[in-house]
Amino acid sequence: MEHITLLLAIVVVTALVFDFTNGFHDTANAMATTISTGALKPKAAVAMSAALNLVGAFLSVEVAKTISGGIINEKGIRTEVIFAALVGAILWNLVTWLLGLPSSSSHALFGGLIGAAVMSAGWSSVNGSTVVTKVLLPAVAAPIVAGVASMLATRLTYRINRNTDEKATAKGYRAGQIASAGLVSLAHGTNDAQKTMGIITLALVTGGVLHPGANPPMWVIVSAGMAIAMGTYLGGWRIIRTMGKGLTELAPPQGFAAQSGAATVILASSHLGFSLSTTQVCSGSVMGAGLGRKGGVVRWSTATRMFIAWGLTLPAAGLVGAGAEFLTGQGTWGVVLVAILLIAGSGFIWKLSRRQPVDHNDVTATVTPAESPAEPAGVVTTAIAAVTPPPTVAAVAADLTATIPAPAPVAPADPARPATV
User: Fold this and answer.
1) What is the pLDDT of residues 198-231, one digit of tens each?
2) Could you read off the pLDDT of 260-290 as tens digits, one per residue?
3) What Rg, from alpha-carbon coordinates, does the chain have?
4) Which of 42, 154, 246, 311 is least surrounded by CB atoms within 10 angstroms?
5) Residue 364 Cα to chain centre, angstroms
6) What H or E segment, with its residue span, contains residue 276?
7) Neighbouring-strand partners of residue 72
8) How far apart are CA 359 and CA 216, in angstroms?
9) At what angle are helices 218-234 and 166-206 packed, to 10 degrees?
10) Residue 126: φ, ψ to 5°
11) Where are the alpha helices (H) located in 207-299, listed in sequence order?
């Protein structure tokens, strides 16, 4: 086994930076609904999520093995490929964070990895069947399953409590939200922290430090868990605001249903080794919970922007990863240039974010019309508004009375003036 080289050390550090961005990018998955309904204060929520993310990182390595030995063929892949992939993933995470869009950090990582691998060794370096079965299919199915489950759970909850006072049950649901949010945070640690473990393990394999198929070493597990926990504690307030207020307005029963459904889906996928997007699962759950309440409204303008970001994540991160790999393939100067571009791009995005900062003090503020425009009336609503009900008899009489002019007043006869025949 070779010792860790300078390039490999740079890749490990970059992977932990990605893990850090993953933490603050995905904090909203666990805590957005809990914060928006007032079940927990913002700072307390992110602190609890960070601690449980760290615990979850130690519970499983199935997803890490999927990434380190499943998506791309390890043979023939250089360490620079991993570095290029991480550059694509980090920059896409930061761009979507700036826009407040809950896109998938997982798919950003996969896109960067696939793009860099194809640029380096061609399409044969990608295991297409693994990508389809463990990335693409879960990406489509997971938010739908979570959304339907949350919608049904919300309807069932309101049906059970239809004869109870909503204020009397709100306290209990808030307690349930705290518990379910903790479960989502734990599930997030078992899924997303492992992705960085898998990337670092893959880099160690390409560098000859580990043999192919090896499990992540303990120091990798600890460092990945710490990085995602620190990122989570900082709180991705922009995305929390979108998830908590931008998609729909949630009451405590809806928040409890959304988080319970999301946690179930994430934990099941981690057990099966499916590296799904926790962002997509939680977003689907929030929308399902919004639709599950009678009179609930989902802001489809915000949801549409989110769907577009989901669709662009894989190809956009892949293109950046491929471009970064092209530069790193030119030699040492290319690696240095990519590192400089990563630092400069990250600094520029951070500077842009300071123009309209969002922190824990205003994360629960109502989303302004500029941030989430009012939804246009739907087809059914417009059709109903256009149909005029038949007028009643009283209404017809009133209309006739209003349209027939009143007779002109007759002047009284003057007694001093003789009448004419």
Assistant:
1) 888 888 888 888 887 777 888 988 998 899 888 8
2) 888 778 777 766 666 667 778 888 888 888 8
3) 29
4) 311
5) 17
6) none
7) 126
8) 35
9) 140
10) -105, 130
11) 218-234, 237-241, 252-272, 278-292
